[in-house]
C-alpha cells in the first residue's frame, strides 16, 4: 500500500489543482488566460509542474482579514445566523402552514359528516 502512496498524492494534487482552476473565476486568474492554465495543469500534471505552477502563480490568493473569509463579498455582507425558533418569519410561515392544514382538516371532516349523513338517509330510505 505504501508504494502507491506517492502516486495517490500526485493524483490528488493534480485533481485538486484541475478542479480549483476550473472553478476559479476568470478575474482571479493571474498571468495567463484560464484556458491556458487548464491546459498546463492537464499536460504537466504527472510531473507536478502544472498543478504546483497553478497553485503558486496562477490564482490570486488573499489572506483572511480579521479572521473573516477571504472573499471581499463575505467581508462586506456578513449574515448572522438565526435559529429557526428565533426567526419571526419562519415562525409566521409555520403558523400559516398550520392554519392551512387546519382548514383542510375541517373541510375533510365536514365532507365526512355530510357523507355519513347521506349514507344514513339512504339506509333509512331503503328500509322503508
From TrEMBL:
Segments passing through the bilayer: 35-57
Predominant cellular place of this UniProt entry's protein: membrane
Membrane-related topology note: Multi-pass membrane protein
Protein name per Swiss-Prot or TrEMBL: Cardiolipin synthase N-terminal domain-containing protein
Statement: the UniProt record of this protein carries the keyword Translocase: no
Residues in Cardiolipin synthase N-terminal domain copies: 12-58
Coiled-coil regions, chain positions: 91-125
Classification via InterPro entries: CLS_N
Superkingdom of source: Bacteria
Pfam families: PLDc_N
Keyword Secreted attached: no
UniProt keyword terms in alphabetical order: Cell membrane, Coiled coil, Membrane, Transmembrane, Transmembrane helix
Lineage per the UniProt record: Bacteria, Bacillati, Actinomycetota, Actinomycetes, Kitasatosporales
Locations listed in the record: Cell membrane
Amino acid at each position: 500500500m505504501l508504494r502507491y502512496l506517492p502516486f495517490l498524492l500526485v493524483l490528488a494534487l493534480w485533481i485538486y489543482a484541475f478542479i480549483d482552476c476550473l472553478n476559479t473565476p476568470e478575474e482571479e486568474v493571474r498571468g495567463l488566460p484560464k484556458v491556458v492554465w487548464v491546459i498546463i495543469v492537464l499536460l504537466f500534471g504527472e510531473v507536478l509542474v502544472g498543478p504546483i505552477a497553478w497553485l503558486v502563480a496562477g490564482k490570486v490568493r488573499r489572506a483572511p482579514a480579521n479572521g473573516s473569509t477571504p472573499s471581499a463579498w463575505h467581508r462586506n455582507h456578513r449574515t448572522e445566523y438565526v435559529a429557526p425558533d428565533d426567526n419571526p418569519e419562519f415562525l409566521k410561515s409555520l403558523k400559516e402552514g398550520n392554519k392551512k392544514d387546519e382548514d383542510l382538516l375541517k373541510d375533510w371532516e365536514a365532507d365526512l359528516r355530510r357523507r355519513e349523513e347521506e349514507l344514513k338517509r339512504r339506509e333509512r330510505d331503503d328500509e322503508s
